[in-house]
Design a protein that fits this description.
The chain has 316 residues and is α/β, with parallel strands linked by helices. The protein contains 11 helices and 14 strands. The chain has helices at 2-10, 52-59, 81-86, 103-113, 120-129, 145-157, 175-190, 202-208, 226-233, 278-288, 304-315; strands spanning 11-21, 27-37, 41-45, 67-72, 75-76, 88-91, 163-167, 194-199, 211-216, 219-225, 235-242, 258-260, 266-272, 294-301. The protein has a 6-stranded mixed β-sheet with strand order 6-7-8-3-9-10, with helices on both faces. α4 (103-113) runs parallel beside α6 (145-157).
């Protein structure tokens, strides 16, 4: 009971048995359970139509759940809607901004919408942090797509939320802006803001997330720390180039799952990282002692993308 209490105290968002069925029979979310910790960066990965946006929209109170419950800092998203919504900032996928409004007018208005007291000092600093201050008096229609995306983030942060949702934040933006966004997210997390982002850019999750959740067909397949995920589900492939063509792998290597390339110039061995590391040294010793004419060895380690593809394939 004490451990459960500690988990709840550390959680800013608590999701229990959450499901969403649309009227035409689509199971958009299936029995989702998730605890999100204060100040963490959680990346939700999944293909298009997996349920990522539905999950975010439900937590934000935009979509009503069919069953289950969600609390934000202990408050229920339905019975305490105003409280929970005021704690959340949302950056949607679409660029939803008034063309003729100025940047300054947009963020001030957004802060007022949440009933927050006027604080121009905070808003000015926010625009500086987002490299928007010099565009303060520009009309939205005059900005580039990347700058409009920054304005959406400024709007979402205008009322000092505890939780920031970023729905596909770097879709369609250039690499430079993507890296700037990653810096912004890290800074927010350091200041205690919990950041939850959906993405199909695996590199984004690999770069900035503390934990990674994988969603497919409305199911949360797993939520793990990024490092743990790489350790337990990752693979290392040992590729050995040979000096001359070999027609058959020596029988002394039969006990290992070693494959020979079609041209006979390469052998390879795949090692699951979570398995015993001593197994690798055994395999490499046996290969060295097998009499094969070895020229070179390279090691290829699986990325988060490989793990994600395998998981989604496995559960489809």
């Amino acid at each position: 009971f004490t451990n459960q209490l500690i988990v709840l105290m550390d959680s800013i968002i608590s999701i229990k048995d959450l499901s969403k069925v649309y009227g035409f029979g689509l199971d958009a979310l299936k029995n989702i359970n998730l605890e999100v910790k204060k100040g963490e960066i959680l990346a939700l990965l999944g293909p298009n139509g997996a349920g990522k946006t539905t999950l975010i929209s439900t937590i934000c109170g935009i979509i009503s759940p069919s069953s289950g419950s969600v609390t934000v800092d202990g408050f229920d998203i339905i019975s305490d809607f105003r409280k929970t919504r005021a704690m959340i900032g949302l950056v949607p996928q679409e660029l939803t901004l008034g063309s003729f409004d100025t940047v300054w007018g947009t963020v001030r208005f957004s802060r007022g919408l949440f009933g927050s007291k006027k604080d121009d000092v905070y808003l000015e600093q926010l625009l500086k942090d987002l490299s928007l201050f010099d565009k303060k008096n520009s009309e939205i229609r005059m900005l580039s797509g990347g700058m409009k995306r920054r304005v959406l983030i400024a709007k979402a942060l205008s009322h000092n939320p505890k939780v920031l949702f970023l729905d596909e934040p770097t879709a369609g933006v250039d690499v430079e802006l993507r890296k700037d966004m990653w810096k912004i997210v890290h800074k927010l997390s350091e200041n205690g803001v919990t950041v939850i982002l959906t993405t199909h850019y695996i590199e984004e999750a690999e770069e900035i997330a503390d934990r990674v959740g994988v969603i497919n067909n409305g199911e949360l397949l797993l939520v793990e720390s990024k490092d743990h995920l790489m350790e337990t589900l990752g693979k290392k492939e040992f590729i050995i180039d040979l000096k001359e063509v070999v027609k058959k792998i020596p029988s002394s290597l039969d006990k290992h799952s070693i494959t020979l390339s079609e041209d006979g110039m390469q052998i390879s061995y795949t090692h699951i990282i979570k398995e015993d590391e001593t197994e690798i040294s055994d395999v490499l010793n046996d290969i060295t002692n097998s009499g094969l004419p070895i020229r070179d060895l390279k090691i290829v380690q699986s990325t988060l993308e490989d793990i994600f593809v395998d998981l989604v394939k496995e559960k489809s």
